[in-house]
Amino acid sequence: MLYYTALVAVVQLFAGFFSSALMCQQCGGHKYEGSVRLSREECCEATPVECKSDQVCLRALVNSPYGNFFLSGCHAAEDDLIGCDYHALPHNSSVLRCVCANAECQNDFTGDCAVGGTQTTTKAASFQPTSSPSPTSSQSPVASLPPLVMAPIGRTIRGLSAGKRMDGSESVEAALLREPDRRVLSIQSHVVHGYAGNKCSIFPLQLHGFEVDSINSVQFSNHAGNVEYLTLPTRYEHVKGQKLTDTELEELYEGLRLNKINNYTHILTGYCGNVDFLKKIADVVTDIKRKDSNTFFVCDPVMGDHGKYYTPRELMPVYRDVLLPLADLLTPNAFELGELTGSTVATEEQCLAAIDVLHDKGVRFVVVTSGVTDAQSEETLCCYSSVREANASSPTRYRFTFPRLRGHFVGTGDVFTALLVAWLDRSRGDVSGAVERVLQTMQALIKRTSEFAQSQVESNSRACCELRLVQSRCDLLKPPPAEGILVERI
Amino acid sequence: MLYYTALVAVVQLFAGFFSSALMCQQCGGHKYEGSVRLSREECCEATPVECKSDQVCLRALVNSPYGNFFLSGCHAAEDDLIGCDYHALPHNSSVLRCVCANAECQNDFTGDCAVGGTQTTTKAASFQPTSSPSPTSSQSPVASLPPLVMAPIGRTIRGLSAGKRMDGSESVEAALLREPDRRVLSIQSHVVHGYAGNKCSIFPLQLHGFEVDSINSVQFSNHAGNVEYLTLPTRYEHVKGQKLTDTELEELYEGLRLNKINNYTHILTGYCGNVDFLKKIADVVTDIKRKDSNTFFVCDPVMGDHGKYYTPRELMPVYRDVLLPLADLLTPNAFELGELTGSTVATEEQCLAAIDVLHDKGVRFVVVTSGVTDAQSEETLCCYSSVREANASSPTRYRFTFPRLRGHFVGTGDVFTALLVAWLDRSRGDVSGAVERVLQTMQALIKRTSEFAQSQVESNSRACCELRLVQSRCDLLKPPPAEGILVERI
After folding, report:
1. B113 by DSSP, 3-state: which?
2. Less crowded by CB within 10 Å, the N or C end of chain A?
3. CA B264 to chain centre
4. Does the distance separating the beta carbons of A220 and B219 come in below 8 Å?
5. Which sequence spans correspond to the domains of chain A?
6. Chain B residues close to A211, C-beta within 8 Å
7. Are B371 and B383 in contact (CB under 8 A)?
8. Cross-strand bridge partners of residue B74
9. Is the CB of residue B86 less than 8 Å from the CB of residue B166?
10. pLDDT digit string (tens) for B291-307?
11. Span A174-489 CATH architecture
12. ipTM of this model?
């Protein structure tokens, strides 16, 4: 799926402002649920709103394979269309777009731009199909209101518009005021110092307004992972602490169950080093899903990377046979994907074939986070998303190409998955838009971490290689534009 | 101490804007450390800045008992002076204040307002001593630049300016971008569901940019505390989970110590139910302070309330004889203050006398959070702050009176203390300003929690009485103006 706002990025608007406030019939009012295919009724109640002085009222009729729908809203010049939250567009849609004048802004829109007064009071738009080979080239402004243009939506390079779509124009304060009414159960490790597991997941989710109930599968002084950055030590020399047993996990969950507070919209699991504990997690997930089948289970099947296990091999069949059938979203790397499907995943083709195996087992969303070696280069890395809807014949897939940054730090995968939960929820299932936002934040986080490590390298301390997560809280909330993120439908 | 901006609240400025940008010699540049007494050199490097179109350049010379100093900065009309971060003013200071014209804005300021051009290009200020009996009454705007007025700073009612002082004008985004470079070790309880202990402390501190290393003294499914709200059950029926032993705490700390990552600017402790564990906490604090005597230890000596212990009585002598002598800031309620000092604390006089006992034992900051019964009314509650500096003959004390809100919820004290750490640090030790901000946030948090509980009361579930902490993240970061908070020096 593509966002309407991705189109807007190549639209040139005349400069100039309205002298008086413009009323616009904006989608607003009641919440809508679930679907990204929004008929006007499904979407929300259309309410007249007053556009700010530097905005226009933008209206669009979308003809899509899933049914036509209507969009409208106040629109900042050269910025996103802000209306019914996201306006995700199905593929193979076409769009009739119109910047309207005061008179017709509050009327229904059937695809015809009104004729009266538009030239004097509106900004005119020149529309360019997004399949343009040169999406950055400027279009000449059109001196009078142009005819409406059918704008086919297809394969698009979105790197240049990164960070300007969905609700990119939403202020940080508005994002902090969101109350998504979501409750996550996150079962992961806890480290006192530094970042791994729950220390990576809880804060980003809370920042996005999620209630996070966290069960700490271990409490360690610090993580035990390897980092790679310049000449710095790759590991902490010591790791001390305690592990939660499967019996203790059962006891904790029993407390939640007996008090009837085991109600979750999401469950999130990550690293787990023990077969019995992993099986107990599966019991917990099963019980919560029995109570509410809508609970969305996000499973990061952490087992190893680069061809090697760093967890016991005995975990794999438990992930494959017990956790995987419960998962709504699975986030393996290429190695884990290969192990779970009994295949080698080195090429994109192998990756997509293996993803299909997971879909066949009932996993709706798959995000392969890294490690498809043949798709990588010296400068770039890749990840993949795939969604297969229950009644769709084939999955919708995207390739994300992004710059390879210096350094490998512990906890990046855990932050990635937590942010994916937040954005997937906020985009109501638009996995490609969500992954793009997550990548934007991850690039900023890794750069900040890397720069800090660089500045501290003389201390020769492992401590300076911890993720700069708290320092990145603005980027966690509002992904910054990131150069060079390429999103392609495949 | 009072903030200069508290004075500004009663200053009337002419309306009107500069037509061109104004350069102002603003304190900026390098960081300064520690002191609230800022000579210009100590403060920071003065740098010319361009004031925004709706700002004036405001300059002030402060004559204080601790030495004179200079303030300046771009100043939003009727808003705070923004210069060297906070501009905390010592008591018994006087201020020479001047809104300057373009010509002299970049010069030093010795207290004389330049004569040339000021009337045409600056906003004139009428100055009113803050001891005015009617701080809300409007002053007539002065038609020409007024003579400078010595403004004695003294006892002031600040409720009306609540939320507009310190950096009240800072945007939420700017607050999210702050990097205070602080690292807290927080040793408290962990509950999977709901709010108590570390679940209350970590998020607010992280939101303010603090690195939080958290040691969970227990992992329980939920808290065991009593709430009072309408007809709702006062307790969860079940509590399940595990406790950390003193040996396990020692082991965790050993991991930090061996890796040389036991470096903290702050230590924060709260509820602890076990004598041996509390003694081990004292060992940890002692060891960290041995390494860095500047580490600021904030101890909430949680023992009981309303005349009753809800922890073992054996904890008291450990708090009194072992923890207290290590503490830089102690946050007892009246009952705990009484127990620690062997006295009854029912009146303000008794409270202040007991606080003196703590100061005599070396505690610099004391905040008595609640429970001085004779100072309370049906409508209001009180808390007290007291600071005794090493070389000062007597402590500086404040009484805070604030509206009594319906409902008693678990975890409010833990949020209070965490926010106090954040604001005390941000105000560089201005405890009265910090407490006021904390109270503003607490009022908003309790109101939101109470309203949510009210809306859910039909479910008759304890779960709806949990603090609405995540939903209050904007208020945690930027305290909202709260009606009826009265701050008085006593």
Report:
1. coil
2. C
3. 20
4. no
5. 2-156, 174-489
6. 470
7. no
8. B57
9. yes
10. 999 999 999 999 999 99
11. 3-Layer(aba) Sandwich (3.40)
12. 0.71
